[in-house]
Specification:
By secondary structure, the protein is of the alpha/beta class. It has a single domain, classed as Alpha/beta knot (3-Layer(aba) Sandwich). The chain contains nine helices and eight strands. A six-stranded parallel beta sheet has the order 5-4-1-7-6-8, with helices on both faces. Helix 1 crosses helix 4, helix 1 packs parallel to helix 8 and helix 6 crosses helix 8. The longest helix is centred in the first third of the chain and has 15 residues.
């Protein structure tokens, strides 16, 4: 499988009125998405915020689990958070991946709704592409607030279909959405299906 990265984006995202805003970092999002990223074998996890104090908060969260009694009591959590990095922008995350992998990643985005003119790909289609040899690294973006701003969605290489719930209710936490997306794209069933097809 190619190197897959994830990023939790706090800017640019939308508020409930559709305006572009910067959302706040929360401890549980950092903690849980890092654990999900590690569980599904991702190469790294970025937390994106242009606000220095928010990035410093991420550093403090990571330090809590990477040292002292937290490390001794729960080393598996420290292991999961080891690949987490705070960056000021999506572009910085892309640059870091490019330097590490030797080529720029394809940027995949998730959204509950598709912007005009952007046709989403199914989970099966995206998963197949991720497992193809020599397609290069990929970066999956998750938006906080009320989702990624349209400028991010329209510039992305690929839009992943929304997660469909039942009874018309669709308001998952970003932590839950990330875990579902990882499982559908990279989980054991997907890996076995692609291995059988080769």
């Amino acid at each position: 499988m190619n190197a897959i990265y994830s990023a939790l984006v706090h800017h640019p995202v939308r508020d409930r009125d559709g305006q572009t805003v910067t959302s706040s970092v929360t401890n549980i999002d950092v903690h849980d998405i890092a654990r999900s990223s590690h569980t599904f074998g991702l190469a790294g996890f970025f937390v994106v915020s242009p606000i220095d104090a928010q990035r410093q908060l991420v550093v403090r969260i990571l330090e809590h689990w990477r040292s002292g009694t937290s490390l001794r009591r729960m080393p598996h959590r420290s292991e999961a958070l080891a690949a987490c990095v705070a960056t000021a922008s999506i572009e910085q995350a892309v640059t870091q991946i490019t330097q590490r992998e030797g080529r720029a990643p394809r940027v995949l985005v998730t959204a509950a709704r598709a912007p005009d003119g952007k046709q989403p790909a199914t989970f099966a289609e995206v998963s197949r592409q991720l497992f193809l040899p020599d397609t290069g690294p990929a970066l999956i973006l998750f938006g906080t607030g009320h989702g990624l701003a349209d400028e991010v969605l329209t510039r992305a290489d690929l839009l992943i279909e929304p997660i469909a719930g039942v009874a018309g209710y669709n308001h998952l936490s970003v932590r839950a959405a990330a875990a579902i997306v990882f499982d559908r794209l990279l989980g054991r069933q997907s890996a076995e299906r692609h291995a059988a097809a080769d």
